[in-house]
Amino acid sequence: MSAYNKTDVHPSTFILIGIPGLEAAHIWISIPFCVVYLLALLGNCSLLFIIKTDSSLHEPMYLFLCMLAVADLIVCTTAVPKLLSLFWFQDRKIHFEACLTQVFLIHSCSTMESGFFLAMAFDRYVAICNPLRHSAILTHSVIGGIGVAIVIRGTVLLTPHPFLLRWLPYCRSNIISHTYCEFMALIKIACAETRIRRAYSLIVAFLTGGVDFILIICSYVLILHTVFQLPSKEARLKTLGTCGSHVCVILVSYTPAFFSFLTHRFGHHVAPHVHIFVANIYLLVPPMVNPIIYGVKTKKIRGRFLKIFIFSKTPK
């Protein structure tokens, strides 16, 4: 019978492979990844600054957008610096505790992002289906309460993840075929029964992202029902236009998220480099695209951004 000492079972470090099969292209892949990350930082920080300094933007949709921007910044900053270090300097080692911290922050903040999407959908539902009571229903205290509830939900449901992984033995290997530490990637290299842990992860994913997505669809069904009762085509298009940014952001975020989730658990025939590349797209692209979408499609934010940009360029 094989014997494993504590170091074998609980390695002090893991080795990140990066994108399997594309190791030779890591340096080239890092260039767009770095550019996208910098744009995400610039876009979300600008968005937070604009909304904070402009009192006319202290409305429910924009306050929820600020919360989303913070979650986006945490998610991409948790993973991307280490990813770029791996690509540029072959820095593949990550300490066990740092790996578990990555797992918690990425999964919990992704869950919070889903909650903020639902909160924004609720805001659109109230604004369109019950416009006269919008300001009375979504007061600043209610918005703050919703934000706190979303953060608590993400924290409570995802806190067990690092502990479930810590208690697993890793006697097969300490090599992770990924660019960052992810729950299922660690589950796959454990040498113990993991059905209960997989089931818990699946249940949490359904209770957060799955339920949120169903409720978002329900809210838009009610919104469409209200919109199609409006008397004129112009009024219908104008009302739907207020939802355009939110719908675009949801599509950009949920599409790679669902692909990554499903391929990790059921897509055994999907090439590993495809899955891992999409997983990185999920971490990088939505944080970059979200402020761009709202900046382009929201007149108030676009005008404020241009005003700041033009003012900064004006010679003194």
TrEMBL record:
UniProt keyword terms in alphabetical order: G-protein coupled receptor, Membrane, Olfaction, Receptor, Sensory transduction, Transducer, Transmembrane, Transmembrane helix
CDD domains for the chain: 7tmA_OR52R_52L-like
Top-rank taxon: Eukaryota
Transmembrane domains' residue ranges: 27-50, 62-84, 104-125, 137-158, 202-228, 240-262, 274-296
Statement: the UniProt record of this protein carries the keyword Signal: no
Gene3D superfamilies linked: Rhodopsin 7-helix transmembrane proteins
Protein's cellular compartments: Membrane
Membrane-related topology note: Multi-pass membrane protein
Keyword field contains Iron: no
Domain (G-protein coupled receptors family 1 profile): residue spans on this chain: 43-294
Entry GO MF terms: G protein-coupled receptor activity; olfactory receptor activity
Role: Putative odorant or sperm cell receptor.
Main location: membrane
Protein name as catalogued: Olfactory receptor 52K2-like
Listed InterPro entries: GPCR_Rhodpsn, GPCR_Rhodpsn_7TM, Olfact_rcpt, OR51/52/56-like
Annotated SUPFAM superfamilies: Family A G protein-coupled receptor-like
Gene Ontology cellular component annotations, sorted alphabetically: plasma membrane
